Amino acid sequence: MTASDSKGSTGSAGSAGGGKARFDDIYDRPDPRAYFTRLAPLEYEIPAHAQPVFRQAMAERAAFDDGRPGTPAVLDLCCSYGINAALLNHDVTLAEMYERYTSPAAQAMTTAELTAWDKEFYAGRRRPDAVPVIGLDIAAPAVAYAHAVGLLDSAFTDNLEQRPPGPGLSRALAEAGLITLTGGGSYITARTFTALLEQARRPLWVSAFVLRTVSYGPIERALAAHGLRTVLDSSRTYTQRLFADPREQRYAIAAARAAGHDPAGHEQAGRFHTLYYASRPDAADGRH
Ligand SMILES: C[S@@+](CC[C@H](N)C(=O)[O-])C[C@H]1O[C@@H](n2cnc3c(N)ncnc32)[C@H](O)[C@@H]1O
Predict the structure, then answer these.
(1) In ligand 1, which atom is closest to the CA atom of 79?
(2) CA 96 to ligand 1 center in whole angstroms
(3) Each residue of 153-181: pLDDT tens digit?
(4) Confidence (pLDDT) at 19
(5) Sign of the CA dihedral 241, 242, 247, 252?
(6) Where do the record's region annotations for Disordered lie (predicted)?
(7) Dist. CA 230–CA 222, nearest whole Å
């Protein structure tokens, strides 16, 4: 089934943030401690659900012969502190990351000390099948941290909602083979995806977890214009986090309903739910 078969067309990725709690103050800190401390009580968990899915998608993308030498890179969109890169390339769980960054030991460190501690930690947990990861996020301190500790091979802060990629990101995109996305569907629109795909040199697949409160339709159409067919995994949803307050829940129930979803047993039960969308060139389509 294509995503548009089962989704309403109400709203857009850019406009659906209206009633959603904002966490801007934890996105651009010099290290991830505030991010994990603030999100722990809300049980933000979508990167944990994404971990096996992204590993599988990347294994399939790496096995797909695109006629170019070398393993294609993952482009983690809205990468923040490199959480998806940590989970993809290292033997580590999101639960361990919460424990690590909220621990008294971490809380007592300076950012420089935490950076050194993390660098050693992730080097020791590196998986043999690790793949290159390019990080893109407008939060400069967050991506700088992820790069400094070795989670990202390269990091960029271009805001593709506002302008085309600069020369650095354009060069890096030549090697990208898979875009991953968690937690960013309320912030970016088809503009960002179009800008990325215009610079792609290798087949660029997309694996995206997007809130049910947001319509993926405009992005799906932008991807289709670049030869990508989007398939929605309609078999299940994935919980993202608890609602911050009853007002946010009321917004999410209304937005999910407006997008054609039944909130019963989902948003009505207290958490945001996401859907998983996988986009691949028609010819590949996961069965190459
Ligand atoms: C909820 S966080 C998700 C971080 C990470 N992917 C995760 O799941 O833990 C959303 C991120 O989107 C980033 N963001 C917002 N607008 C953006 C844009 N136009 N381009 C790239 N990143 C953006 C924010 O800076 C923030 O780091």
Answers:
(1) 6
(2) 21
(3) 999 999 999 999 999 999 999 999 999 99
(4) 87
(5) positive
(6) 1-25
(7) 10
- Ligand 1 centroid to residue 287 C-alpha, Å: 31
Answer yes or no: is the C-beta of 187 below 6 A from any ligand 1 atom: yes
CB atoms within 10 A of CB 59: 12
Task: Give one DSSP letter per residue of 220-286, joined into a string.
Answer: HHHHHTTTEEEEE-TT--EEEEE-SSHHHHHHHHHHHHHTT---TTTGGGTEEEEEEEEEEETTTTT
Q: Which of 187, 191, 240, 274 to mutate to test the pocket of ligand 1 (most atoms within 8 A of CB)?
A: 187
Q: Is the CB of 172 under 6 A from ligand 1?
A: no
Instruction: Report in angstroms the alpha-carbon separations of 204 from 13, 75, 81, 109.
Output: 21, 9, 23, 39
pTM, two decimals, is 0.93
CATH fold group of domain 3-281? Rossmann fold (3.40.50)
Q: Is the pLDDT of residue 288 over 60?
A: no
Structure tokens at 121: 């930690």
- Does the C-beta of 80 come closer than 6 Å to ligand 1? yes
Domain ranges of the chain: 3-281
Tokens 């971990």 found at = 51
> What does the pLDDT look like over 175-189, one tens digit per residue?
999 999 999 999 999
CA–centroid distance, 38 to ligand 1, in Å, is 15
